[in-house]
Amino acid sequence: MSSMSREPIGVIGTGYVGLVTAAGFAELGSEVWCIDIDEPKIEGLRAGRVPIWEPGLEALLTRHRERLHFSTDLGDALEHARLLFVAVGTPPTYSGDADLSAVHAVVDAMPASDRHALVMKSTVPVGTGDSIRRAFEEQGKGGFSYVSCPEFLKEGSALKDFLEPDRVVVGDDGDWAGDAVVALYAPLEAELVRTDVRSAEMVKLASNAFLATKISFINEIANVCEETGADVVEVARGMGLDDRIGPKFLQAGIGFGGSCFPKDVAALKQLAGNSGYHFQLLNSVIEVNELQKRRVIAKLQKHLGSLVGKEIGLLGLAFKANTDDMREASSLVLSARLQAAGARVRAYDPVAEHEARKLIRGIVFGESALDVARGADAVVLVTEWPEFADLDLAEVASEMRGTLLVDGRNFFDPEAVVSAGLMYEGIGRALVRGAVPALEGD
Ligand SMILES: NC(=O)c1ccc[n+]([C@@H]2O[C@H](COP(=O)([O-])OP(=O)(O)OC[C@H]3O[C@@H](n4cnc5c(N)ncnc54)[C@H](O)[C@@H]3O)[C@@H](O)[C@H]2O)c1
């Protein structure tokens, strides 16, 4: 389709989802008006500075800079586009409900119009679409259309996920706006799920809750493996080859984090509770995840005894590799627990240091993995950054004061770690001892 015939769009909120949506639709040929209330962010974007680290994003935004317009004035988007994609944050509140204040601010800012539609990309509780339509009616803006179009991108591979989605979900009332959104996505030739607004909202929450459940499940299997001498990596491989199960999200580790799973699981649990249903399974998913983040402490104590005064090096801080997102990262809990137990913490992350410095106090940021290993009693692999695969483990061993490597993501080859003269302890794997004398109390 030529760029001339593509529908122009507005994107409200220029965070991870907003910028990827903007870059993705620009790639498909649309002019995109990007709106944010954060003036420095918009200034930066105008000057070509991308506020987040996402592979390929800067290049795509640069390639399509002619089609991308950045503004703090909603009127710019309203003037040029009928479809306004909403990608503002919906963080958790203390009650576990989603905080919809940014969404409502957008709704309230809309003028009366019968030629515009809000297209909700933000993850919202089931029923939000209905309450927005009610708000539009009450505000005399009943002509405004509404479409639910949840986003399934994964940070780290967000552009690929946008351009090659497993499915596109469009929930609407069957008016022009739903058709227009479907037409926008048509070049991607993705599987389309066209449904009602409530079901579209639930697809998103249920998908994230299911994936989180899969992670907590394999983490519990890992914990039982530790008690019984099985190796969870082998177990997961054997399970994942079953077509009905699949290998994805079966990696045991130190718990899930990020800006989506923790809050979306809590929001679904809360939504169920608010509707009178006790979602028992999700309570366990959350609890298992919280406990999993702390198991590393017990592993360290098992080998080092008291952690008071011990030097612990953390490899990676971001909630997963290929992102600088630190929201709900397991490293936040880990570094706080370590410091509370009296340990001194040094950490290195290839890209997330800037974000981490805003959230983690009292630790030293190293300049490299080796820098973090220097003088450490133990090193913990927290984030599975690909560059850590190239680490010279013998050099790591020679820099350390102690010999323990806790592999929080089952990332390293245990044999290689042991050959380098270290002791290996993964998650759900039999402890592999190196050719080093066992420590006292071990
Ligand atoms: N990050 C992900 O991986 C991901 C994936 C799928 C869905 N989601 C959902 O998408 C939504 C956005 O997530 P994100 O990670 O992109 O958030 P984010 O925090 O990175 O970005 C949100 C942006 O919205 C802006 N904003 C807030 N209020 C505004 C307003 N009234 N008008 C204009 N801009 C406003 C903020 O300044 C910020 O730039 C959330 O609901 C999230 O759950 C996120």
User: Percent helix among the residues?
Assistant: 40-55%
Q: Point out poorly predicted stretches.
A: 435-442
Tell me, briefly, the overall form. Answer: globular
Helix/sheet category: alpha/beta
Q: Which range does the strand content fall in?
A: 5-15%
Number of helices: 17
C-alpha-based Rg, rounded: 24 Å
Biggest pleated-sheet summary: 6 strands, parallel
Quantity of strands, as a count: 14
Write the layout of secondary structure elements.
Blueprint: E1 9-12, H1 16-27, E2 32-35, H2 39-46, H3 57-63, E3 68-71, H4 74-80, E4 83-86, H5 101-109, E5 117-120, H6 128-138, E6 145-148, H7 158-163, E7 168-171, H8 176-185, E8 192-195, H9 197-228, H10 232-240, H11 261-274, H12 280-304, E9 311-315, H13 330-340, E10 344-348, H14 353-359, E11 364-365, H15 369-373, E12 378-381, H16 393-399, E13 404-407, H17 414-419, E14 423-425
Parallel strand pairs: 1-2, 1-4, 2-3, 4-5, 5-6, 7-8, 9-10, 9-12, 10-11, 12-13, 13-14
Helix pairs in contact: 9-11, 9-12, 11-12, 12-13
Bound molecules: nicotinamide-adenine-dinucleotide.
The site of nicotinamide-adenine-dinucleotide has 27 residues, from helix 1 and helix 5.
